[in-house]
Amino acid sequence: MPELSRFYGITIAMYHDDHVPPHFHAEYGEYEARFSIPGLRIIEGSVPPRVRSLVLEWAAQHLQELADDWELCHSNRPPKPIKPLK
Length: 86
Fold this sequence. Notes:
Layout: E1 3-7, E2 10-13, E3 23-28, E4 31-36, E5 42-46, H1 49-61, H2 63-73
Antiparallel strand pairs: 1-2, 2-3, 3-4, 4-5
């Protein structure tokens, strides 16, 4: 699983063979959720509310980079790392 970013114990990743719609995975301890890139919402799974807020804040700051990484992954190229939330 290509890791895009890591902050506050949250790991953000994308899979090369993942299905549409464009999305990324956020993992925090035993929790995992998939967030759509367009619309920035949870499409599967769950994370604690504070983690959800942090992920959405980070994703809003890096929306174009997430879309670009989705295209890279689906072209069988490695995604580029994205700066963590500070």
